[in-house]
Amino acid sequence: MMQVGIWLIPRSVAARAGGWDERLSLINDFDYVTRVLLASTGVRFCDGARLYYRSGNPRSLASRRSRAAWESAALALELGTAALLERDDGPRARRASADVFQEWSHAAYLEDEAAFERLSARVASLGGSSIVMEGGAAFAALRRLVGWKRAKRIKALAHRHGFGRISRLKARLAAGGPAR
Fold first, then answer.
1. Which of 74, 146, 169, 173 falls 20 to 30 Å from 9 in CA-CA distance?
2. From CA 76, how far away is CA 129, in angstroms rounded?
3. Which residues of 108-132 are buried (b: 16+ CB within 10 A; e: fewer)?
4. What are phi and psi of 13, to 5 degrees?
5. What is the pLDDT of residues 86-138, one digit of tens each?
């Protein structure tokens, strides 16, 4: 998935793909870009193209993690993968679909239990995924010891108690930046 602002989409492809689904908020571009790719005859890349994208805005659609936002994410994944699987219901497409649901189930864990359950059920219905929740070295070691769910709980607890601020400070100091 590439940020949708980087795409130059011919009008004819956009017309075949259909419009943007305005019901969606969180990952609202997933369904649209999937349909655009399926409506196209190929993708060309332009070396050196750049997109400057501001992230980290807590009020942006991408930052929302409400119940409605998680429902939007699940619906966007359902719509986008349904379009793919309608074209190709083979093992590769099913695995790719399961993988995207797995990534988002990891994100939903601890944030929205219903979304986590829904996304995990889709992973299973598509035949499973081998995607492992990623993290830094400490998270990876902890994941191997106690499993990804407990590791994520421990990480969340550590961040609530200031670990995130400490690790960012250490990174700034290691890079020669100010302590702030």
1. 74
2. 19
3. bbeebeebbebbbebbeebeebebe
4. -70, -45
5. 999 999 999 999 999 999 999 999 999 999 999 999 999 999 999 999 888 88
Residues 118 and 151 both lie in one domain: no
The amino acid at residue 34 is: T
Cα(39)–Cα(74) distance, rounded to whole angstroms?
Answer: 22
Same-domain status, 140 and 114: no
Whole-angstrom distance, CA of residue 22 vs CA of residue 19: 9
> What residues have CB less than 8 Å from 54, skipping those under 6 apart?
none
Q: 33-36: long-range contacts (C-beta < 8 A, 24 or more apart)?
A: 33/1, 33/2, 33/4, 33/7, 33/80, 34/79, 34/80, 34/81, 34/83, 34/84, 35/80, 35/83, 36/7, 36/9
Domain count, the chain: 2
Both 126 and 152 in one domain: the answer is no
Do 16 and 28 lie in one domain? The reply is yes
Read off the tokens for 40. Answer: 């196209």
Domain range for 166 is: 135-180
pTM beyond 0.90: the answer is: no
Within this chain, do residues 84 and 113 fall inside the same structural domain, yes or no? yes
Are 54 and 141 members of one domain? no
